[in-house]
């Protein structure tokens, strides 16, 4: 809790408790607690709380404008201006400003006088001087923020004088009073400013140029009242040679004042506008900014120059922009961007991006200025490499003409780089470097071209929706041409051949262009945009690029490929074009589109690597033709070589080869193609995928698929770009090198083996460097012997160093191969994900369980690297979400049922043998998935296997019976497997199995729960640990409602769905008969539906049963049987019979005590109602009702024929009418009115309704029992469904009334 300030009054509670000031000094007792809490909430740090409290205070005061609350509120807010907490002062100042704004009748002079009297600077103590200064300052700011100060001349003059007095206390307030004075004077009228100006502005120019506030006041007067200023100061030239150094100092002071705020000072922007107005901008920029502030080597001053540059962009003309963007400020900005690389170092680039984006967005109608600024920022280079990133978000604000001009400039700079037009620089470390190759023009051209080509691709990537398609086509053709083709002779038919290179395009630059082209191709392929004027066929971008490449290949006299085509490769290209035309005939099929995309992509790769892609292209064409012509050519399969593999297997091998390439586009195309062919997958084709994923085979069989990696090439390319970064961080690298040398020494010490030690001992003994026991008597070695020994040792250690380096290289090679293999496996998992997502009902999906589990086991054991973690996460996601939790699964097992039962047993056993629970959970979930598959398959596919078991002498008692007989699940075998696992879990101390595993088993398969519960009950009486585990599992099992409901009789999902479908069909038939006005005899149907009522009620609260009940009672309602209403009160009355005597003595609200109740003398002759509702007695009697209602109730209770007295509950043998039976009419009740001997059990007059009878009735509460058909129900079923007689309607109304009366106690 914060301590209260001395200036704040105490709350009334504190004043009373402390006893220090018993008198009501502040008059707090006159006000409410709610009103006083407003002032505490105003000072809280939360903005929403402060604003809400201020608003509530104003509403409170509006209702009492003349009361004492207003006076207290002003006193309290003025007191809050000088509190000790610095965060609370602005809150009270803002509240006071809003109060003055809302109540304009409050005089500002009196408020200002109260503030000065409360915080008199001449009488205040030294310890309270700082709060008093801030109280006066915030008081004036409150008057100004109210908006009334500039209208009140007297209050304005007093405020100005007070601010001038506060400006003397610079140690506490710094420049805040002068800033407040400038803000106030900027809002006043010209007449008022002319009157006040002599008092606030001195005529001395030295004072004016001494601080930013004085200079800002001077500029304000020059803007508003120049004539008055000229009379006061005279003619002043701020940009003279004498005043320029003073302006530089003032701007430096302004830069220091906003160092923490990181914003542009207003004085700098005002000077810029004055320079533009007086046409002295070049002098201001050159002498004040570049020669003055920028030469100070003071980072706040440099940031002020950068901000001034960004803010000046909208104000400058095209010539002035060229002056600014070619000067020292923009070069210094580029150096800052290159050197500001550390995480904690301030980076100005995001702020400059905001300035440039605001400028581009604001001048959409001036594309020339947009283009000039964008070209200028792209020309700031560090040894040829522009400092702006290749992906620059500000290009989205370019107008179409500016964007087209910018793309044209980039293409021209790529073909003919103009290094002289660039604002190039080198960092200090680059200047110190002695390597002359860093300053070669060829290196700068390569860096510039690489940046340009990726900038073109990024423009298409970010603006592919807004760009004109002609411009997109230009960029795509440009990248394709310079990736794979070379101009021999210009031609007008190909515009790309008209512009030659001023610097030849090197192979390294061409590889960068090729990489950028495939990145562009990925962007265009994912969007599937069409080229302009060629959208008639609806072909993707890749198709038009292939057509352009074919055009280039046909002009062999003008253009040639970088890697010339052989005759076989040119034939493969022509066959690809022919196959594309054949695919157009199947364009309606989705599979044809995927094949077309694959063929186009591999065809473009033929330009990059003809030797590798030629055979691949031929295989793809063969597979495409076979897949599309598979059905009509099925009769010709006899002529095909039987050794030839199916086309699916060949295509899977091709996709695996494409996935081995580090290309995201290839990965997407492989996923798309595999999604269309996975329905034709064969076991051999699936095995090809599993061989890659299987760790046992994939590590040994490395010759199947060669995994390529271009990291070395990228590292060589990036070495040039990162050279300056390495030079800027020499110190950190030297530390890392020293640490690396220490680690190498440790490795060298660890790599020393016994053989090297023996060789070293041999050399030392040969040189007599090692002496024996009498070595003290021997002489020292001579110089020649020492030299020979040194040479021997040097050669020995050199050989050892080579051996260590060879071992280290071999280790790195193995680690790299392992990393490539893991990346390849992660990409191949895409195919597995596609298979289990698009073909979950395929039987081959069942073959994926154990390979995926092996990957999970291996990754959990060695999941140290990031690649292992990625592989584990992806495999676990596919296994858990896409496979085990899939809604669809295989429904055509065939002869796999026996193998799946064995696999279930194997998986459960493996789960019990795992070292940890997470791994065991995956195996256990796999077994549950197989259980679901076996349970969901019918026994028709397993008939042959069952007959073989019977012939082999299998005991027929082990066959599934009952509800499970319709499925392939062998319940006895599965029960034995899981009972063994449950016993192991209960008895084994460190078992990997857990309670949630068995709970999942019980919830998904309640039949197994019923079979496994005896094992839990058996272990409850065992030792401590099994008893604890068994009790815990049994407790959580019994808490599941579904298990308690379904343990009686299991119902498969197929049976449940069959019942739903039958009832839906029945209701549709009823509606059709009603619409057609047909008359049918439905007596038999009514009997069938009532016969199913008891079995339906057993799963009354199971999952999915509500829909079934609704359909059932909808059909019964059509037949004239109403749905019964459950009596909720009986469930509350039954436990009351077992209450303790103490609870019986409690008086219930609204009930009479036993002594006050009237005894019913005629109750001995009465009989219980025919509907089976027990008569209300004693403590269970309902509240008193009206006399007329009691008389009607007595009249309806007939006397028993045999004189048996009424008991508290009906006799055990008394018949209770089923809720499904319609209520009988009064005539039927008179016919059937007999003594309670319907079931042959006479009622006992002396037997009381004990507690046992209530306990027996409890499970039957709400259960719909089976009852014989009543005559009335049969009569209703014979009637028409449409035309009903009035008597039937009346009987139905009577029936509803009797049901409602029977439901009441």
Short description:
With 1305 residues, the chain is mainly alpha-helical.
Structure description:
- Helix 13 (212-224) crosses helix 14, helix 25 (441-463) packs parallel to helix 27 and helix 32 (647-659) runs parallel beside helix 34.
- The chain is built from 61 helices and five strands.
- It has a three-stranded mixed β-sheet.
- The two termini are 60 Å apart.
- With 1305 residues, it is mainly alpha-helical.
- The chain is extended and about 110 Å long.
- The longest helix is centred in the middle third of the chain and has 56 residues, at 783-838.
- 62% of the residues lie in helices and 1% in strands.
- The N terminus and C terminus are likely disordered.
Rg for CA atoms? 47 Å
Helix count, per DSSP?
Answer: 61
The proportion of residues in beta strands is under 5%
Give the rounded overall mean pLDDT. 75
Strand order of the largest sheet: 2-1-3
The end-to-end span amounts to: 60 Å
Largest sheet: 3 strands, mixed
Secondary structure: helix percent = 55-70%
* Global outline: extended
Judged by helices, strands and strand pairing, the structural class is: mainly alpha
